[in-house]
Each structure stands twice: as C-alpha cells, then as structure tokens.
Write a sequence for this structure.
C-alpha cells in the first residue's frame, strides 16, 4: 500500500502519457505545487500500481490522502474535496476510465473490486441544501481554478458519511453509490443503479433506488 498526502495548495496529478500531456501537466504543477518533479505523475508516486491515461488524483482545496494497494489498475478520477478527505483502495482493484471517486469524508474500496465505466462514488452532498450557502460555491470554484482556494468554505453545512465497498464487489457501469453506503463482500451492483442504502454480502442489487434482485 502506497500513500500520498496532498500539500497546502490544490493539486491535480495525472498519469504520465506522451510529450504534450507531460508539458501541460508540468505547466499546471508549476502554478500550484511545490513538490519535486518525481512526484508530478501517478506512475512515480504509486510505483506498485498501474494507471490508464485517463487517471488522475485531485485535491480541490489542499490536503487529502490517497492510499492504493499493489497491482491495482486505475483509470478514473480520485478527488479529495477537503483537507481531511481520504480515499483508500485495496490490492488488484480496477477502476475504469470515466469513473469518479469523490471524497469529502472517507471512501474505502477493498481488494479485487471491479468498478466499470462512468461510475460515481461520492460520500457527501458537495453543496448545502441552503440556497444562500450555495450562492458562493461558484466563487470558490473560480478561485480554486487559479490556485487560490479560499479556506472559509462552510463544510459544516454539507452532509457527508463514509462509504465502504468490500472485497470482490463488482459495480456495473453508470451506477451511483451515495454517502453512508456499505456494500458487502462479493456483491454485484447492476448497471445504472443508484445505491442509497447498505448492501449485504453475496447479492445482486439493481434499480433506482437499488434493491436486492438476487441472492448469490
């Protein structure tokens, strides 16, 4: 298991992939990072894991923690929204391109997990249900774009709850896993499902909201 901790500024680290992307990545990092060059690519940071060209990790407001197990293959986006956010991925897990893991709290994904294309796993609401709180969110995003994140975002108004996806789970394409959900070992989430409640081990769930359709 290799761990990476975000710094005090926002960061976006991509997989190394070709000269043009290398140049663009270097320009981005010069603007927002103070890490040495060896840390600019996922391939350098997580040497025991593998990354598709579509993979990246992002810290939106600085900080964040990523841990990835040996032999995992990552093609999606791993996003930490807060300084204290964490994303943990076990061994030999596959996260396909187009998928997003978004953590404001903590997302734990076990070993030998298969996550198909365009899956979204998000442990928080991202925005307050109070419209007055939401009015400043675009300002926060614009300032973050220019490497100057504000530190006064009211995270206390945004609900979050840890997500746990246990070993040997398979999540079908374009599924959505929402905050507070635990998915038990060996279970399968059918394509296009929206999972809002815990899933026991050894079942198939499907639908919106997802319900048990078969016991394995």
């Amino acid at each position: 298991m290799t761990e990476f901790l975000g710094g005090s500024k926002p960061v976006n680290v991509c997989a190394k992939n070709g000269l043009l992307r290398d140049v663009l990545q270097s320009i981005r990092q010069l603007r927002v990072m103070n890490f040495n060059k060896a840390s600019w690519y996922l391939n350098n940071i997580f040497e025991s894991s593998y990354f598709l060209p579509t993979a990246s990790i992002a810290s939106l407001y600085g900080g964040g923690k990523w841990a990835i197990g040996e032999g995992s293959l990552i093609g999606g986006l791993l996003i930490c929204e807060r300084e204290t956010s964490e994303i943990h991925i076990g061994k030999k897990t596959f996260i396909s391109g187009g998928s997003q893991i978004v953590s404001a709290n903590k997302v734990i994904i076990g070993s030998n997990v298969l996550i198909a294309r365009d899956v979204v796993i998000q442990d928080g609401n991202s925005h307050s249900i109070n419209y007055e709180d939401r009015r400043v969110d675009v300002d926060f995003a614009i300032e973050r774009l220019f490497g100057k994140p504000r530190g006064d975002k009211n995270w206390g108004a945004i609900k979050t709850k840890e997500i746990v996806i246990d070993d040997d789970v398979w999540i079908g394409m374009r599924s959505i896993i929402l905050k507070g959900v635990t998915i038990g070992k060996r279970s399968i989430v059918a394509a296009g499902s929206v999972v809002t409640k815990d899933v026991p081990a050894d079942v198939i769930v499907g639908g919106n909201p997802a319900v048990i359709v078969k016991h394995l």
Observations:
- Residues 7 and 63 are 5 Å apart (CA to CA).
- The helical segments are 19-32, 42-45, 131-134, 137-145.
- The longest strand covers residues 211-215.
- The chain has one domain: 2-124+160-215.
